Structures are given as structure tokens and as C-alpha cells.
Amino acid sequence: MDLNSEKLTRKIVEILDHKKAQDITVLDIQGVSLLSDYFVICNGSSTVQIKALADHIEEMLGEMGYSPNHKEGYHSASWILLDYGEIVVHIFHQESRVFYNLERMWSDAKQVDIENIISRI
């Protein structure tokens, strides 16, 4: 399955939401950076959950024929980065997310409304 970057980003948000990722945010960095089109940012409550979120994304996207170009931080699990080219997924431990504050660093990027994607249980 070949999805455009917007649809693949939506799928990643669904996967993270299903696994109970916290505070999911999507930044549209097109026009702001040549790095990628979207940053998907979230956090987990423990290193076990953070690794499980990364594993689940890799598994689900792998079934769709996608694999990350690059992966960082898995062993420490305070900030796992999964680079899918047009989409970069950042999975943080809460303290690391506050410290690095990517949303502030990329404040020129447009925040994507994902309210219609995430569940409100």
C-alpha cells in the first residue's frame, strides 16, 4: 500500500492513539524545513510503553510495506525517533519532551488538527 504523507501521518496517529500514546501532536513542517513533511510527537508514561509504541508503529507500518530509514534512541527510550522520510515520529518520555520542547523549537510549523482521528474514551 502506498499512501501519501498526509494519509500515512493519519495512520501513525491512529496507531499511537490505539496504543494509548499521550498528548499526540502533529506538526506540518512543509515549507518550514526540507527534513520532512510532518513531525508526529507524543509521549509515553514509561520506557516500556515508549518502546511498545515504537515497536507497534514499526510492526503496523511494516505490514503495509514501510520501514524506517533511521531509528534512534530505542535502548535508552527517553526519546525514540523513527524516520520514515516524509514523516518523522518522536516518542518521548514526559520529562524529555518538556526539556526538548519540539513544538516551541518548530513554532513556525502549522499544528495539524487531529481531533477527528484520536479517540475520546
Tell me the CATH architecture.
2-Layer Sandwich
The CATH homologous superfamily is named Beta Polymerase, domain 2
Taken together, the total number of domains comes to 1
What is the top-level CATH class? Alpha Beta
Instruction: Write down how many β-strands occur, each being a DSSP E stretch of 2 or more residues.
Output: 6
Number of discrete helical segments = 4
Helix/strand class: alpha+beta
Spans where pLDDT lies below 50 across 5 or more residues: none
Computed over alpha carbons, the radius of gyration is: 13 Å
What is the overall shape?
globular
What proportion of the residues form beta strands (DSSP E)?
Answer: 25-35%
Q: In order across it, which strands form the biggest sheet?
A: 3-4-5-2-1-6
Helix content range: 25-40%
Taking the sheet with the most strands, its summary is: 6 strands, mixed
What average pLDDT do the residues reach? Answer: 92
Order of helical and strand elements: HEEHEEEHHE
Oligomer: single chain
CATH topology, which one? Beta Polymerase, domain 2
Note the gap between the termini. 30 Å
What does this structure look like?
This protein is of the alpha+beta class and 121 residues long. 28% of the residues are buried. The protein is built from four helices and six strands.
